[in-house]
C-alpha cells in the first residue's frame, strides 16, 4: 500500500508538532521513521492510522483518501505500550480478528501462524495481563501481524526487550514483515534498528522531514550535521567547516581525511584493542591490532574521502 501525505500539519495547543509539505512511502517497502524523542514519529503513525486528525493536509492510500473505518480495516497498528483486554492472549488475538469479520477457522489459523512465527505459541492460553514486558511486546507484535493488513504500523517494536530478546527479534523481524504484510512503517530512535530493518529511511527532527528515501542514499548523503549525527556519523569541526565521518570509517594511520584522536581509554581483547577518545569534542572509538596506545596520548586516525561529508561553517 502506497502512503502519501501532502501539506500535513498537526498541532497540540499552540505548538506545531508536525509540518510536512510532502512525504511518500512506497508500497512493498519497510520504512523506518528515525528521529530523537519528541520529533513527531509516533504522531505521524497516529495520523496515518486515523487515530489523530491533522490541522491541515491530507493522507492518501494508493491514491485515495480513506474514511476512518476503511483505514481500520486496511491498517494494523502495534503500539509502543502493549494494551490487552482481560482474558488470554488467544482471546485478545481473536477479538482483533473478529473485528475484521473473519470466519472462526481462518482466525484460528492466523493466530497459530503469527504466534508460532513470533515465538509465543506457548503463551496463547496465558492471562494477557500476566505477561512479562518482553512477552507482552512479542504478543503485541504477533497480534498486529496476524491481521495480515496491507499496511502495518509498528511503534518502537523492540522496546521493553532484554538484550538477548532484542537481538533475536531484530534478526527475525525483516522476515516476519515480508511474510505478514505488504508495507510496514516502523518508528525507532535507534540507528541500528533502522538500518537492520528498513528498505527506506525517513529522518524526522522537530516535526520536519530532514531526509527521506532509499536507505543507502540517505545514509550516504545526510543533508546537515544534526541528521548526520542521528545516522551515526561522527561530526567534527575543522578549519574547512563541519565534517561528518561515516560510522566505522575511522582507522589508525594516515589517509585522505586525517584526524588527531586524543586517547581516553583502551580495552584489550586478544590481539585487538578498542580505543575510545575524542576528535575535538566528538567521542570516537577505533579498533587497532596489537598493543594499545596509553590513555592521555594522541593517535593519528583517518578515513577515506568518500566516507566524509563536508558541510559549510
Key terms:
313 residues, Rossmann fold, 9 helices, 29% helix, six-stranded mixed beta sheet, globular, alpha+beta, OB fold (Dihydrolipoamide Acetyltransferase, E2P), 35% strand
**In total, how many beta strands?**
17
String of helices and strands: EEEHEHEHHHEHEHEEHHEEEEEEEE
Report on the biggest sheet.
Answer: 6 strands, mixed
Question: Mind telling me the CATH class of the largest domain?
Answer: Alpha Beta
Counting structural domains, the number is 2
The percent range for strand residues is 35-45%
What's the CATH topology name of the largest domain? Rossmann fold
Radius of gyration: 23 Å
- Unreliable runs, pLDDT <50, ≥5 residues? none
Give the integer mean of the pLDDT values: 93
Straight-line distance between termini: 41 Å
CATH H level, superfamily name of the largest domain: P-loop containing nucleotide triphosphate hydrolases
Helix percent reads 25-40%
Strand order of the largest sheet: 5-6-7-3-8-9
- The appropriate CATH architecture of the largest domain is 3-Layer(aba) Sandwich
Structure description:
The strands form four sheets. Strands 5-6-7-3-8-9 form a six-stranded mixed sheet, sandwiched between helices. It has a five-stranded antiparallel sheet with strand order 12-16-13-14-15, with no helix packed on it. The chain folds into two domains: 3-220, Rossmann fold, CATH 3.40.50; 233-311, OB fold (Dihydrolipoamide Acetyltransferase, E2P). The chain is built from nine helices and 17 strands. It is of the alpha+beta class and 313 residues long. The longest helix has 18 residues, at 163-180. It is 29% helix and 35% strand. The protein is globular and about 70 Å long. The model has no long low-confidence stretch (mean pLDDT 93).
